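yo

u said u wanted the structure for the complex thing, so here. seqs first:
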Amino acid sequence: MPYSAETFVGLIPEIIAAIFLLLVLMVGVFAERAAGLVSGITALGTVLIFASSAWLLASGFHGSFFGGGYVVDGFALYFKLVVAGSAFFASLAATRWAQGTGDATEYLTLILSVVLGALLLVSMRDLFGVFLALELATIPSYAMVAFDRSRRESAEGGMKYIITGAVASSVLLYGIVLIYGASSSANLSGVAKAFSSGHASPVALLGLILLLSGFAFKVSAAPFHFWTPDAYQGAPTSAAAFLSVAPKAATFAILLRILVEGMPGEARVWTAIAAVLAIVTMFTGNLFALRQSNVRRMLAYSSVAHSGYVLTAFAALQGGAKAEAVQAVMIYSAAYAAMNLGAFLVIDLVGEDTKSFNGLIRTRPMVAASMFLFMAALVGIPPLSGFWGKLWIIIAGTGSGSILTYVTVGVLVVNTVLSVPYYFGIVRNMIFEEPVAGTGETKGEGPLKFSVYALAIITVLFFIIIIPLAAVAGSSGLL
Amino acid sequence: MSVTLVWYLIVAAMMFAIGAWGAMIRRNAVVVFMCVELMINAVNLTLVAFSDYLPKAHGAGTGYAVLVIAIAAAEVAVGLAIVLAVFRTRRTVNIDEINSMKG
Amino acid sequence: MNTVSSQLIIAAIVGLPFMAFLICVLFGRRLKENAQYVGTFCVLISLVFSCFALAYVAGLLPGNVPGEGSSIQFSVHWIDLGPGGSFSMGVDIDHWAAVMLIIVCFVSLMVQIFSGGYMEGHPRFAWYYAVVSIFTGSMLGLVVSPNFIQAYFFWELVGGTSYLIHGFYFEKPAATYAAEKAFIVNRVADAALFIGIIIFWRETGTTSFSGIASAAHAGFIGSTTLTAASLFVFLGATGKSAQFPLHVWLSNAMQGPTPLSALIHAAAMIVSGVYLVSRTYNIFVQSPTAMEVVAIVGAFTAFMSATMAIAQKDIKQIIAYSTISQFGYVMLGLGEGAFTAGVFHIYNHALFKSLLFLLAASLGYAVGGSSDMGVMGGLKKRMPVTYWAFVIAGLSLAGIFPFSGFWSKDAIIAAAYDEGHYVLFALALFTVFLTALYIFRGIFICFWGEPRSEEARKAVEVPSIMTVPMIILAFLSIVSGWVGIPKGFGLPIKDVFGDFVQPSSFAQKTLHATPQNFSFVMAGISVLFGVIGIWLAYTVVVARPQWATAVGRTFPRVHAFLLNGWYFDLVYDRLFVRPAKALGGAVRDFDLRGFGGLVSGIGGAVSWSGERLRALQTGGVQNYAFAVLLGALIIAIIASAQYSFLVVALVVAFSVVAAAVGARL
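structre next:
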């Protein structure tokens, strides 16, 4: 029996996303200038997605559909919550900017398409399904990056993103096809058989290599990261904020699922690859971020560095700490979502030049305080959110029993210190520099400020939020 | 001489390499997209060959190939729209000249 | 401690200051000057509750028998790590922690009362009280922490909020550099502490202080690992307590309001380092090497910063260096196994050091905001209360009988002698002389002689809201040591402190500690050194000022060496800051001049491949696509290598190539 009532229950979040996607498009046709209305509908949609995912999670739902190619388990639902939550704040934050462009409907439709893609992505257990969902999340994001017609950088960033993205997609697809050829199956359980011996065929190994390259691009690991700063600098701020969080978290999730469920036999190979990528990525991100004068570009490099931190958890997926490594990825994604989203949204309020943060503590103390919290969280100072992610990664890394992973964890600690100056630079500008003119409040900032403050509160209260998160992550069903 | 799976794979790999090479050296953005199409189609050829030659795969790959074609089309559609947007602001689609952001 | 109501009372000790913080932040604009009542009231209640906690652990309340096990312990389950274990959040108040709670609350209370006058009319009055409250709350949280994770949590909170204090006067440009330096030095120290915690956690599967101590005792940790982890924790402690070699941040970080310095130095941030060592004492005692390092670092720091204090021109700087020096004594005491003497010194120091800073604040208040001794002088007649309080605090700091500092400092010095560490003993004894010299040099310059500025000529005594806390603290600086008069002294009083705050029986057993006997000879020598110091200070400042100038002229380099804090800043600048900046500059050049410069620097092979790469490049975005394919190739190499040592070697090559490609873009 391929379809049943259970299928529909399990797919409620995705169905809601699809319905609201169409709804926003329709409303946009009939009410052309109602940016507030459409963003309200989008926000409502994300809230419903969040609520339905939370409900499924709370009721302990577990289901596998479409011949085992689609699975709804705790792990997937957790990431659906992260995606829906960040989409909620991003769509609120997009209101003001989208109003100005006059194309609010299209912009919010794109956000919802990315959400739908990400929701599908985290549940996939079939490699071609993964590709489909990944592209569903990526193709709208190209358009989001190039959406700002008032700035030249936007189209340029979009073009750089889509050309490298298309190349990377074809590399990823090549990898998937080769794995499919080697194992005669695209389902992860079938793939696992081809990789089970520990000595996979050369074709399968090549497939693994290309697959990892494609994913490394999507999560902007060095040296696949070059598109990241250009795309984020060009993109509208809310798009950069959203894209650096939700699709990335979903991509990490599905990569984790593919590696853990599909190729446990080759763990030695891909943990080594992850370790090397992590080391290179952390150094690249932090060193390049050190000398940026554009805050958005700086945060783009910082997001590269944070990808490196998450990859450290991938490197720890061996030995006695596998469960903790999976939890580390989950917790880091949630922690990173709150703090990074918040930091990007502050840019939308203040401006993208470092100088526009000067003296912010005097002109807008609450915004400055929020930014201070986000920066401190990104550095990893307890009790803020970033600390917990790093804590879990370090715990997992130190338990992995592999020298290379220990080295990677050491590099992570070094990089945490290395990242202090550039995060701190913002704080210094906010507190000690003379304010510049024109950083006062403008109209229509309400939803944006609400998002920033709410994310700041989440960042601060993460030491309480961590309790249910850790419980869910501990019983995720993956491992 | 019968045409075995390996022949298909080699041809596809060569197509992929040619596409990748073209994507890296051509200056016109539209041509670059054509080269990317070539890469994706090379992969598609591999996919179809696999699904035809591997008995255990039950020919499911053919269905996937149709999906991939659709995705590639969507990608290029968005890509060309972006190229148009670039052309509107800069009056060029030469991707050498589109490098205002670096570092 | 089982009833919910009593647990709530204990939790409120920590919670109330945080509540005050929230109120002051949220309603600060409406509260204005009334914020002081919120802050003061909350900390007063905390103080009362702390007294309750003390009474409980002392066995004065019904339902509890006095003895070693009579600590307050309860915890809630916090985070579950699955098979890896779990973290809990809770409270563990033993005798020493109960005393510490009272110290923190009391000093904070005095500071808050004093600040009502000091900060009057400041535009950020409510914010000031918010900062004091959260700072107090963080420290209280640290004091009661039963495990490393919770301690680290509050440890960082103390550090983070101290940043608010350093940056309080953000109008002053000098505050920037100081705050930045403090932040980075403390990050290094905190990273070390965190590494130590993770090692302990990995080896024992727990983060609780007692759990680690017993696991170490049971042999779960190898002795080398134990020493290494303990030293990492100690390095963390040296960062917060400004001990050598991480002391460099403190002397710059004096830009905040002076009463807050009193809180930082006497009862909060700087204390947190030594407190952590005393709290984890059961772990430290199991590693003789770590204990020795603690003792040596402590003695050296005490001596070093005392010499630095001699040449300072600013009264706040003198007091700041004296804090470093005094905590050097505490570390020495702890390292020598004299736990009670060490923590007794923390207790005495809290009182006289907070007094000293409040006095410095009132001096600054009287002469118009400066703490430079060059504008003071002749204030003895004009500010009698401040003067006499300063003399009392100075005598206590110098360890003159029978002021409070004498009792604890003497015990520490005697412990160094008893343990046979004669070099450390000599350093500590000489530091007594230096201490008396620098603090009385400051007193004589500020209060004796002729006024050196118009402000000093017109200065009047500060208002009574400020003098009252000063008088209370001055009184306590005299008598606080009397609760710990050793039995050997021959007075018919009990050694209350020594009986109450003892190292755990486990630590006593491990150290084979023999109870110290009070030695009149030792005490006599140490007091003699102090008196000589005071006499010398009197001579060079008041009686024969030409001597000081002559010495300064004869040995200008020595003077500059001391004044600049042994040039540590310069050394660190050369060793760390400049290379880091050079690296940053190199990265920047990378960007500006492209790849070429670097290539010619690295050499022919890379240059050749760089040229080949260059031939491949036709423009921006295609390099990105190229990088994707190149990356795939690299991954392939790693995957096929399958040997970790090859991978490590590849990382280097890989980084160079990736950076090269990146720079070219």
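The beta strands of chain A are 63-65, 70-72. The CA atoms of residues 29 and 105 of chain A lie 8 Å apart.
cya
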